[in-house]
Design a protein that fits this description.
The protein is built from 23 helices and 18 strands. By secondary structure, it is an alpha/beta fold.
């Protein structure tokens, strides 16, 4: 029998974790119901490799290095993909008459006891990090092959009916029939999208085919291509589960539904758009119970973080988060809300839609179709005796005016704008009808942000600097004020799917409103405001933060230049 290991105590004993971090993780574990190891990894306190190596040493099991060349794939395929994912194990080879099995959790006795019966042999346990196990499973059991097979099955079924048309009535009658090929195909697409951490799925009909693309780390990647006859079937099923009109193909529609994928609840927001060859479908994927980041783990520079915390604790005023769509503004806003004490603070939000549920906070879904816009929710919320308000987006003059009035009457208001940098935010508010003196009175702090791709840690290598990149670094950090020895680039590997990047990191510039900035607004001198803001952000702009991230090897210079050129 394998002795029971208390992971938290073991990590503390080995100096890998503090008592404070463990208590924080245990609170998150109770909120989410996830395993402690997964919570510790999500919080960034410890890596799964560290956990696996530590358990291996403690239990005197071998540590399995998760590289494909270390796996006998014929042995691995003795278990099905469903079995290895469910049990979180992988047969990796043989030693005599015993099967070597890589295991994530040695305390999962039920799964380990089942292995000898499934493999029909005695087993020897080796410990493997969970991310390494998932990567190996994904490569050995090709998800794309499975999806292509399901697509072919669906295509054959449709071909057996009318060659030129899809029977929408028959497809509609299949709702709830989990064995329908179209349902299996969509489930496989969602499973793959969640596995690669895609934010969006694009289904795009073309003349001779229907293409599937996934947006991963902000970039679209071709995923699969099926016969064009599948497009109407996919559109019909997605409309059905979204409660949309399946007979309407001439007008755009928007809907949403919830799916269970890889033991996670995912909120899907569907958008349809009539195109030349059929309806283009885009689905935004939102985890309903994510591990929300805390402010101090977002990556904001210490001075900027201190200014933001001061604004949040002031109790009144307007805090703006700016940036383009997909730049992580919602994550920053939720981290800011989480830093407030919901127990002693009345917090209300108006969102379109509510993306993540937060305990102790009243969250309202905006619904323009019934006349419930941001301004209407905000006016009603002000009668609810709030201390802090989150307005998902300032879209119109009415919302801007109401937010300003709330901010100058003793309420803390958090909201977002679409601007290129922090210096542009005040001008944008004035363009939307806010009086300059009101902007100067209400504004507390402006945060501008972008997301850049992170260099893959598994295949990173030293990178060379081009003259153009060197000139850009000079502009951002000062001539000869930087060291390029830490530059990295990813050569491409199985972990990052040959892209050289794995995940993203945030870049932030924080502009607190000081007397000089407020004075320019009171005079309605926007040119002076822009100059004063850029002076205040010298060395702390988006471009400067991107340059530092590249020099530290976290991202590439090209990635930093992509977002920093306009923020000089």
């Amino acid at each position: 029998m394998i002795p029971k290991i208390r992971l938290g105590e073991l990590l503390i004993r080995q100096g890998k974790l503090s008592e404070e971090q463990l208590q924080h993780a245990l609170v998150r574990q109770k909120q989410t119901g996830r395993r402690l190891g997964a919570v510790l990894q999500d919080l960034g306190f410890v890596s799964d490799e560290t956990i696996a190596r530590l358990l291996a040493a403690q239990l005197k099991f071998p540590y399995f290095d998760p590289r494909l060349e270390n796996v006998d794939q014929a042995i691995a395929r003795r278990l099905t993909e469903l079995q290895v994912r469910k049990l979180r194990v992988l047969p990796v080879g043989e030693q005599g008459d015993r099967t070597r099995v890589a295991v994530v959790d040695p305390n999962d006795w039920a799964s380990i006891d089942e292995l000898p019966k499934l493999l029909r042999s005695a087993i020897d346990i080796e410990l493997i990090p969970e991310s390494g196990l998932q990567s190996l499973i994904d490569r050995i059991y090709s998800a794309k092959e499975s999806i292509q097979g399901l697509a072919k099955k669906l295509s054959d079924e449709l071909r057996s009916n009318d060659v030129d048309a899809v029977d929408f009535g028959a497809l509609g009658a299949q709702v709830g029939t989990e064995d329908a090929p179209v349902v299996k195909l969509l489930q496989s697409l969602f499973d793959e999208a969640v596995r690669v951490k895609a934010s969006d799925i694009h289904i795009e009909p073309m003349a001779q085919a229907v293409g599937i693309r996934l947006r991963v780390d902000g970039h679209l990647r071709a995923h699969a291509e099926f016969e064009s006859r599948l497009a109407p079937a996919l559109a019909s099923r997605l409309k059905l589960v979204s409660s949309l009109d399946i007979s309407e193909r001439r007008l755009p529609q928007d809907g949403r539904f919830v799916v269970q994928v890889r033991q996670q609840t995912v909120d899907i927001r569907l958008s349809t758009l009539p195109g030349q060859y059929g309806e283009s479908l885009v689905m935004r994927l939102l985890l309903k119970d994510p591990m929300l980041a805390s402010l101090d783990r977002l990556g904001i520079a210490p001075a900027g973080l201190a200014a933001l915390r001061q604004a949040l604790t002031s109790g009144s005023g307007l805090v703006l988060v700016t940036g383009p769509t997909g730049s992580g503004k919602t994550t920053t806003l939720y981290a800011a809300l989480a830093s407030l004490d919901a127990g002693s603070t009345k917090i209300l939000t108006a969102e379109d839609p509510v993306e993540y549920r937060l305990p102790g906070i009243t969250q309202v879904n905006v619904n323009e179709k019934v006349g419930l816009g941001f301004a209407q929710v905000l006016r009603a919320a002000l009668r609810q005796d709030p201390d802090a308000l989150l307005i998902g987006e300032m879209r119109d003059a009415d919302t801007v005016e109401t937010c300003m009035r709330a901010a100058v009457t003793g309420h803390l208001v958090l909201s977002t704008l679409h601007t290129n940098d922090a210096a542009s935010a005040a001008a944008r508010l004035i363009d939307m009808g806010a009086p300059p003196y009101m902007v100067g009175t209400a504004l507390q702090t402006i945060v501008a942000q972008r997301l850049v791709r992170r260099v893959c840690g598994a295949c990173s290598q030293p990178a060379l600097l081009t003259p153009q990149q060197g000139a850009w670094l000079d502009v951002q950090l000062g001539a000869h004020q930087w060291d390029a020895t830490g530059l990295k680039r990813g050569r491409g590997c199985s972990r990052c799917r040959q892209t050289g990047f794995d995940g993203r990191l945030g870049l932030y510039e924080v502009l607190p409103m000081d007397e000089a900035l407020i004075s320019t607004l009171m005079r309605n001198d926007m040119s002076a405001f822009g100059q004063a803001a850029r002076t205040a952000l010298t060395g702390r702009s988006l471009g400067s933060e991107g340059a530092r991230a590249a020099l530290a090897g976290h991202t590439t210079v090209d990635e930093a230049m992509r977002i920093g050129v306009r923020a000089l």
